[in-house]
Each structure stands twice: as C-alpha cells, then as structure tokens.
Amino acid sequence: PRYHPRSSTTGAPIRDVALSRDVRFDDLNLRTAWGARQLKARIRYAATDLCQKLNIRYPVSADNSPPCYQTAVHRAMYQADRAISDARNEADENY
Prior knowledge:
- It contains two helices and no strands.
- With 95 residues, the protein is mainly α.
- Helix 1 packs antiparallel against helix 2 (68-93).
C-alpha cells in the first residue's frame, strides 16, 4: 500500500498544492527603469493574489511549508530579472 502522510495535528492527508499564472509584460518597455518596476509590481500583486487564494482554499498548512509569498516572488523575480536583462542586452546590440 502507498504511504499517504497525514498531519500530526489534524490527521488530514497532506497534499502539495500550487497555483500559478503568467504575468503579462509585453506592454512594458523593460529597457526603462519604469518598465522594470512595473513588471516587479505586477509580480508582487500576482503573488499576493495567488497566495490569498491558496490560503482560502487550504487554510491549514504543514509546519514546514515554505512561506507562499516570499517563495513565489523569489522564483518569479529570477525570471523577471532575466527578461529585463535580455531586453537591455538586445537594445545594446541594436546600437
């Protein structure tokens, strides 16, 4: 039989859950400081929204669960920094 971990507090089965969505930035000029700030603000907003939805759907979390907002922002900012860097490098190549 498969082992299904259960919460020591509630006895409920433990499931890993996640939500994700794309953050649109095709309308931003990432070569500018303003465009980069807007993208990062959109990421923070999306992380807040999705983490709130997870908290509503799954109000009880495991003690060792990573913090939702910080984890989401950290992972997304890595991708955002890459997109910003690519946009700025592309602009440099065109000059």
